[in-house]
Amino acid sequence: MGIFNSKKQDDAPIDANNIIGKGTQIDGNLKTLGNIRIDGEVKGNIFSQSKVALGQNAVIEGNIEAQYAEIEGTVTGDLQIYEQLTLKSTALVKGNIQAKKIMVEVGAKFYGQCTIGDELNHNNKADNHKAGGSASSHNAKQEKFEKVGA
């Protein structure tokens, strides 16, 4: 079927891969069941039931919620990652992070609070959206990171 043929949305595969290319600007929220790679700019929240990958040129002004995330670009907003977050050496995050696991390469910059632990789960998401704050587990490890050096 061609891309212009009508097809019910329910028929879309869950393992779909989406790409927002360099030079593309989106103003609005993104929601996908599959993976998404962003090399452009997004002003809005991003939700994926799979993986969000931000290229080195990506600029995001909004929150990201996903199972996995790999960040090479810039994010101004909070991250809620239910499995593993990887901050590459070129990453710049200005916001709070919640993740089950986190890997940070030398050179990555992060300004905000970080909650890491096994007890983060999707149930926290509902509480977070209702309260308008950040969901956290009382047994999860919480650390505050600040800029070190220039």
Description:
- It contains 1 helix and 16 strands.
- It is mostly beta strands.
- The chain has one domain.
- It has a 16-stranded mixed β-sheet that branches.
- It is globular and about 30 Å long.
- The C terminus is likely disordered.
Spatial extent as radius of gyration: 16 Å
Assembly level: single chain
Give the overall silhouette. globular
- Please tally the β strands and state the result: 16
Number of helices: 1
> What count of domains describes the coordinates?
1
Short characterization:
With 150 residues, the protein is mainly beta.
Give short descriptive properties of this protein.
disordered C terminus; 16-stranded mixed sheet; globular; 16 strands; 150 residues; 1 helix; mainly beta
Topology, please?
Layout: E1 17-20, E2 25-27, E3 30-32, E4 35-38, E5 41-43, E6 46-48, E7 51-54, E8 59-61, E9 64-66, E10 68-71, E11 74-76, E12 79-87, E13 92-94, E14 97-104, E15 109-116, H1 122-131, E16 141-145
Parallel strand pairs: 1-4, 2-5, 3-6, 4-7, 5-8, 6-9, 7-10, 8-11, 9-12, 10-12, 11-13, 12-14, 13-15, 14-15
Antiparallel strand pairs: 15-16
